[in-house]
C-alpha cells in the first residue's frame, strides 16, 4: 500500500502541496499549513499490527528505523527514501517513574519524559531530523537550497546546526543576543553554522528569518514549517508505547512558540484515528508568567493577543507572539486543555525541589513541574492519575541557571533548596567535623 502525506491549510482552504515544496503558509489565506496523512491507506494495517511493527523497530539498528522517529516513518514522512534520512538516533528517551517526587505530591503514578536526553539535548531533534531529511531529498533530486535557516531561543539552532552539519548542508541561525545559555550558543558554533547574534528578542529574530526565507534557496527551519511537528508528534506515540500502549490521564508540557503542544496533540489524534487508543489524555500547557500569551488567552475565552515577553530563566520559552498559537488552541480545545503559569520563583523552586529527588531539571521543565504542583494543590489532578510531565531539555545546558540558584544570585528569588560546596583546608579533622555537623543538621 502506498502511504501519502501532503501539506494542507489548517483553516481548511482547498489544495494539497507536496512536502518537497518550500511552502510554509497557505497561499490562499496565509494561515499555517499542517501535514495531512492518507488515513485510509494507513488503515491497511490493524492497530495491533502497527504497535507490533513499532515495537519490533524500537531502538534497533536497521537504518533508519532504530530512531524512534523513523521507526514510525509511515506516520511521519512516508515518501522519504532511506538514503535521504539524516538521523542521529532520535527518541527512545527515558520515561522515568518519578516515584519519590510523586510521593511528595501525594501521587502514585507520576512520570517524566526526558526529551532532553537526546543528541543535542532537547526535544528539537525529533523534528529536525525530519526537516533536514526532506531538505536532503530535495537537494538529491536537483532542488536548489543554499542554506537552512532558523530563529531560535537556543535549542532549535543547536539542533538545526547539528543535523545540517551531519547532512553537509549550510546552516544559518539567528539568536537574540545575550538571551540564550552559553552551552546553547556554543552548539551551533561548534557545528560550523553561520551564527547571527541579533540585538533583539526571539520575536524579532523570527520576523527577520521569515523575510530571509522568502529568498529563493533559503529554507525555513522553524516550527511554523510543519515538517518539524511531524517528527515531534512521535513523542506522544513513544510515551504511549513506553506505557505498554496505555494512555496517560494527563500530559503537562511547557509552551513557548506552541509548536510542541500541537505536535503532541497530533500524535494522540493519529493514534486515536487508527484505533491504537480509545481515549485522549488531558493536555496542560505550562507557561512562564513573564511570557504568558497563551495563559492570557485561556483566561479570556481563547481570545489571543501577543505580549512583549519579559526576561525569564526559562529563556527558551521567552516568546510573546507564538507562531503556532492557532494550532495550539485547536489542540487544547480537543483535549480538555488547561493553561497555567509559573512565576520565576515557582519555576526555580520546582526544578530544585525535583532535583532533590534525583532529577536535574532545566528551567522549562521547572515551569511544567511548578504547574503540576499548582494543579495538584488545587485538586485538579487526582492522587491516582497517571501524569506525564514532558521535560523538554537537559538541565546540563542551563548551568548559569543552576549555579545562580544555588549561589542565591537569581533576581527576586530566595532559594529554599540552595546547596553550596563547603570549602575546607586539606585537613582530616576539618572534614570529619563537617561531616558530623552535616549529619546532625539533616537528622
Ligand atoms: C527547552 C524548551 N522547552 C520548551 C520549548 C517550547 O516549545 P514550543 O516553542 O514548541 O512551544 C522550547 C522551544 O521553544 C524549548 O527549547
Ligand atoms: Zn488557507
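^ Assign residues to that structure.
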Amino acid at each position: 500500500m502506498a502511504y501519502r502525506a501532503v501539506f494542507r491549510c489548517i483553516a481548511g482552504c482547498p489544495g494539497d502541496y507536496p512536502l518537497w515544496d518550500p511552502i510554509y503558509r497557505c497561499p490562499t489565506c496565509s494561515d499555517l499549513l499542517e501535514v495531512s496523512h492518507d488515513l485510509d491507506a494507513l488503515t491497511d494495517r490493524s492497530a495491533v499490527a502497527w504497535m507490533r511493527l513499532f515495537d519490533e523497530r524500537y531502538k534497533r539498528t536497521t537504518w533508519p528505523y532504530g530512531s524512534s522517529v523513523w521507526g514510525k516513518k509511515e506516520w511521519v514522512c512516508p515518501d522519504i527514501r532511506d538514503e535521504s534520512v539524516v538521523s542521529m538516533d532520535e527518541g527512545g528517551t527515558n520515561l522515568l517513574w518519578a516515584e519519590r517526587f510523586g510521593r511528595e505530591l501525594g501521587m502514585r503514578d507520576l512520570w517524566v519524559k526526558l526529551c532532553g536526553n537526546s543528541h543535542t539535548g532537547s526535544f528539537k531533534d525529533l523534528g529536525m531530523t525530519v526537516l533536514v531529511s526532506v531538505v536532503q531529498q530535495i537537494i538529491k533530486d536537483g532542488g536548489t537550497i543554499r542554506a537552512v535557516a532558523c530563529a531560535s531561543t537556543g535549542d532549535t539552532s543547536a539542533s538545526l546546526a547539528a543535523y545540517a552539519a551531519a547532512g553537509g548542508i549550510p546552516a544559518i541561525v539567528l539568536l537574540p543576543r545575550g538571551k540564550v545559555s552559553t552551552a546553547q550558543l556554543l552548539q551551533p558554533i561548534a557545528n560550523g553554522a553561520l551564527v547571527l547574534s541579533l540585538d533583539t528578542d526571539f520575536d524579532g529574530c523570527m520576523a527577520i528569518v521569515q523575510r530571509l526565507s522568502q529568498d529563493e534557496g533559503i529554507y525555513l527551519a522553524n516550527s511554523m514549517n510543519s515538517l518539524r511537528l511531524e517528527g515531534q508528534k512521535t513523542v506522544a506515540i513513544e510515551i504511549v508505547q513506553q506505557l505498554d500502549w496505555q494512555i496517560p490521564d494527563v500530559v503537562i508540557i511547557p509552551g513557548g512558540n506552541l509548536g510542541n503542544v500541537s505536535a503532541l496533540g497530533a500524535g494522540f489524534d493519529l493514534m486515536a484515528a487508527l484505533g491504537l487508543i480509545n481515549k485522549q489524555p488531558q493536555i496542560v500547557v505550562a507557561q512562564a508568567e513573564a511570557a504568558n500569551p497563551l495563559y492570557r488567552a485561556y483566561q479570556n475565552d481563547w481570545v489571543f493577543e501577543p505580549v512583549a515577553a519579559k526576561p525569564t530563566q526559562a529563556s527558551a520559552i521567552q516568546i510573546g507572539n507564538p507562531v503556532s498559537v492557532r494550532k495550539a488552541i485547536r489542540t487544547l480545545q480537543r483535549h480538555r486543555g488547561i493553561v497555567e503559569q509559573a512565576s520565576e520563583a515557582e519555576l526555580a523552586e520546582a526544578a530544585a525541589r525535583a532535583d532533590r529527588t534525583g532529577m536535574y531539571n532545566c528551567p522549562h521543565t521547572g515551569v511544567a513541574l511548578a504547574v503540576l504542583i499548582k494543579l495538584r494543590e488545587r485538586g485538579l489532578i487526582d492522587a491516582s492519575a497517571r501524569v506525564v510531565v514532558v521535560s523538554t531539555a537537559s538541565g546540563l545546558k542551563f548551568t548559569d541557571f543552576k549555579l545562580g540558584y544555588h549561589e542565591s544570585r537569581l533576581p527576586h528569588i530566595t532559594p529554599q533548596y540552595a546547596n553550596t560546596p563547603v570549602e575546607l583546608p586539606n585537613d582530616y579533622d576539618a572534614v570529619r567535623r563537617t561531616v558530623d555537623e552535616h549529619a546532625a543538621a539533616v537528622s
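Residues 122, 153, 155, 223, 254-260, 316-317, 362, 364, 392-393 surround pyridoxal-5'-phosphate (ligand 1) (CB under 6 Å).
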